[in-house]
Design goal:
heterodimer; A: Rossmann fold; Rossmann fold; 4 domains; B: alpha/beta; Pyruvate-ferredoxin Oxidoreductase, domain 3; six-stranded mixed sheet
């Protein structure tokens, strides 16, 4: 049995924050779960995928976050509990649905997991999605540790049912990827069959209907406010004269700082876990009992601004500080030392933090950026394109492992914005300039957001080459399937969609499918695309080797070596491919046989044929 | 309890996430309150992987200068993470180098390990330096480096966990085929930390 399905209350397990959310959904009797995977949220749906058959609920990897939200909404409106998970930028994709779904509301609990990524460990921006609660009018909850990620998920379902509104549970990377002890609770029975009760004047968002629905949403705000005032997740802790307001993982830093500094008797902490609507009466009570306030929140001054506005309305005069020079920044994530230091300086107590060792004696260390893996097919396709198009072609790229092509010596990413933007920006750049444009998009990203842009490119007669890097999986987030994947090996019944048919269906006439590991074929395809006057698509098709290994489809590994008698140090293998399995030792080009997977690309590139398979 | 902050650094594939998770599991088994932090996703792919175990506090991560123990799976990464240490930190490092590909393409120079170790020794409470890759290979499984490093951590006696607790956790979570070599690797780490 999957460990998260164990029906024994009071069981204690060390769980990843994302595991804890998945367990919370199980305890809440989830019937439908959907997602588009995205770090740092991916392990939640990966857990669902691993246990949905055994757990007796429905789960799908949807094509994108908007679709995922709509599937979950359809289920919750039909009266069964649903969850939709996504990373913060996924919320942008889903937001069109989100805004009006808030008007419609739901009939069974619906929880949207939104994972923000301060410091951008795996994201293109660090937008603060607490604004989405304010934009949509949906309630928001923010846990502080693994236990709460489980408990609050259950509470969010109940809250959603009470208000008949989806509830957004917001996490940050540090919470998603922390492990802590979680005590299990009861698993509730799943209600797995719903019924769609027709009520068009409630569910068809025509202007006349929506005018009424907006009013209903505002009434629900008042109800939610009342619940927020009385929520166990909003607490005033202590009764000192120094006020600290905090949320999420910052609460952990604040608690530790107050202990470390020994100022527990001097502070009052206002912890906001049911963070939208903000509990106004509780905030007033807090403000009237403190002399000065420090707001400890990562990213934007969301609570700070709201609290200042409440203070102004109630004519409470007390200094409220947070985001300003010398205190906290709107940039990046916080850490315990920074929070301790800022609390110490704001309230005028000595900072007890230990002094870091002097590191000035350390020599400049070589960088260790993440890199395309040894044997990655993207590297081979990049090589082919570079050989044909040279260094001057412009390369719009997209979101995935292949974005790592930005690094020298490949340098195959010139502009990246968000999922699917490679194709749209290619249209604009090729129209605006006389430069050759060759753009790259992954298979999963193409399904997610590339198709409308490709139709646009064909319809409006844009001229560029699009390379769809089809490695048969959603590699970067941990090898989740997508519509182009045969899921039979995973024991899941889905219908596989051919990227080639799809591309042709979009109206592209010049379509080539190549295996990039055959370097010559890749170069020929690149040349044909360059010679074609119009939109040309190359589908570069080869399984991600990590994924191939995981589904036991990997070819037998036969590592290669460099024959030093033949090697004449052209260094094409090192300088043009930069495979992490290759290195130079004492002036000799070498291959690390543990890392090498025998993809043969370097052997094909070597002008001296000096790279050969190791004899067994 | 007294707070203990342990930082693990390594390179994608070396297994330091598993090491920090096992330490967290052992804490749970021993009734020690602990939180573990990890970084997944783009932060991997051959890049630097950092994780942490914090005993007796709520914050899952460790700030500059605040590590009680720094465990480096690769010597240049131990050096890079030295800002996590203060003069009372115990540093445990593998001395087997794994040069990044930036060195191969001439974008950086791999540091002199001997000088690096001297520099660490001069600045912290104590340094345990061992050839973890060699010990792992001797134990019968080159991938058991993480067990060697966990062994060295327990052997250093900086944390309130004993060998038996860790071994029990390892036994519970390791596939039978690797159990022997993993326990051997762990023992060799314990022994090496005593010599160091």
């Amino acid at each position: 049995m999957h460990k998260l399905l164990i029906d024994s209350p009071d069981e204690e397990m060390l769980l990843l924050g994302n595991d804890a959310i998945a367990r919370g959904a199980i305890e809440a009797g989830i019937a439908v779960a959907t997602c588009y995977p995205g770090t740092p949220s991916s392990e939640i749906p990966d857990n669902f995928f691993a246990m949905f058959r055994e757990g007796g609920f429905y789960f799908e990897y949807s094509t994108n976050e908007k679709v995922a939200l709509e599937v979950a909404a359809g289920a919750a409106i039909s009266g069964i509990r649903s969850m939709c998970t996504m990373k913060h930028v996924g919320m942008n994709v889903a937001s069109d649905t989100l805004m009006t779904l808030a008007y419609l509301g739901v009939n069974a609990g619906m929880v949207i997991i939104n994972a923000d990524d301060p410091l951008m460990f795996s994201s293109q921006n660090e937008q603060d999605n607490r604004y989405y609660a304010r934009l949509s009018g949906l309630p928001m909850m923010e846990p502080i540790n693994a236990q709460e990620m489980k408990d609050m998920t259950v509470a969010a379902f109940d809250l959603s049912e009470q208000l008949k509104l989806p509830v957004v549970l917001r996490t940050t990377t540090r919470l998603n990827h922390m492990r802590g002890v979680v005590k299990f609770g009861q698993i509730r029975q799943i209600k797995s069959k719903g019924f769609f009760k027709k009520d068009p004047f409630h569910y068809v968002a025509l202007p006349a209907v929506s005018r009424n629905l907006h009013k209903v949403l505002l009434e629900k705000y008042d109800q939610a406010l009342e619940l927020s005032e009385n929520s166990e997740y909003n607490q005033i802790i202590g009764n000192g004269k120094w006020g600290i307001v905090t949320n999420g993982v910052s609460m952990d830093y604040v608690q530790d700082a107050v202990n470390d500094l020994g100022i527990g008797d001097k502070v009052t902490i206002l912890r906001l876990g049911f963070s939208y609507p903000m509990p106004e009466n509780m905030i007033v009570k807090f403000l009237t009992n403190v002399e000065k306030v420090l707001v400890v929140e990562e990213l934007e001054p969301v609570m700070e601004n709201d609290i200042r506005s409440i203070a102004q309305a109630k004519e409470i005069v007390v200094p409220i500080k947070g985001k300003e020079k010398g205190l906290f920044s709107r940039l990046y994530e916080f850490d315990p030392g920074m929070v301790r230091g800022t609390i110490a300086s704001y309230f005028g107590v000595p900072d007890t933090s230990p002094k870091p060792v002097d590191v000035t004696g350390i020599p400049d260390l070589p960088g260790r950026p993440p890199n395309l893996c040894a044997g990655c097919p993207h590297r081979a396709m990049y090589y082919a394109i570079k050989q044909v198009y040279g260094p001057d072609a412009v390369h719009p790229s997209d979101i995935g492992c292949y974005t790592l092509g930005i690094l020298p010596p490949l340098k195959m990413a010139d502009i990246v914005i968000c999922m699917g933007a490679s194709i749209g920006t290619s249209c604009g750049i090729s129209k605006a300039t006389d430069q050759k444009v060759v753009s790259f998009i992954g298979d999963s990203t193409f399904f997610h957001a590339g198709i409308p842009a490709l139709i646009n490119a064909v319809h409006n007669n844009h001229k560029f080459t699009l390379v769809i890097l089809d490695n048969g999986t959603t590699a970067m987030t941990g090898n989740q399937p997508h519509p182009g994947v045969d899921t039979t090996p995973m024991g899941v019944d889905t219908t596989q969609i051919s990227i080639e048919s799809l591309v042709r269906g979009c109206g592209v006439e010049h379509v080539q499918v190549v295996n990039p590991m055959q370097v010559k074929k890749g170069i020929e395809a690149a040349q044909a695309s360059k010679d074609f006057d119009g939109i040309s698509v190359i589908i570069s098709k080869e399984l991600c080797p990590l994924y191939a290994r995981s589904i036991k489809k990997a070819k037998k590994v036969r590592p290669f070596y460099v024959n030093q008698d033949k090697c004449k140090q052209h260094l094409d293998c090192i300088n043009l491919l930069a495979c992490p399995a290759m290195y130079i030792d004492d002036g000799k080009t070498m291959i690390n046989e543990v890392l090498c997977i025998g993809c043969t690309v370097c052997a094909q590139v070597c002008p001296e044929n000096a790279i050969l398979p190791l004899k067994k | 309890m007294e707070t203990k902050r342990i930082v693990f650094v390594g390179v994608g594939g070396q297994g330091n996430l598993l090491a920090s998770r096992l330490l967290g599991e052992a804490c749970l088994a021993a009734g020690i309150p602990a939180v573990v932090s990890e970084i997944h996703g783009m932060a991997q792919r051959g890049g630097i992987v950092e994780s942490a175990v914090v005993m007796g506090a709520s914050s899952p991560i460790v700030s500059e200068g605040e590590a009680d123990v720094l465990i480096g799976f690769e010597p240049s990464e131990t050096l890079r993470a030295l800002n996590k240490c203060n003069k009372n930190t115990v540093v445990i490092t593998n001395i087997h180098p794994l040069p990044p590909f930036t060195v191969a393409i001439g974008q950086g120079v791999y540091p002199d390990i001997g000088k690096g170790l001297d520099l660490i020794r001069d600045n912290v409470r104590s340094l345990i330096a061992l050839d973890g890759d060699e010990l792992a290979a001797k134990a019968g499984n080159p991938l058991s480096l993480n067990m060697v490093m966990l062994g060295a951590l327990v052997g250093s006696k900086v944390i309130p966990l004993d060998e038996d607790t860790l071994k029990e956790t390892i036994s519970k979570t390791t596939k039978q085929a690797f159990l022997d070599s993993n326990l051997k690797a762990f023992d060799s780490g314990v022994a090496a930390s005593r010599i160091g």
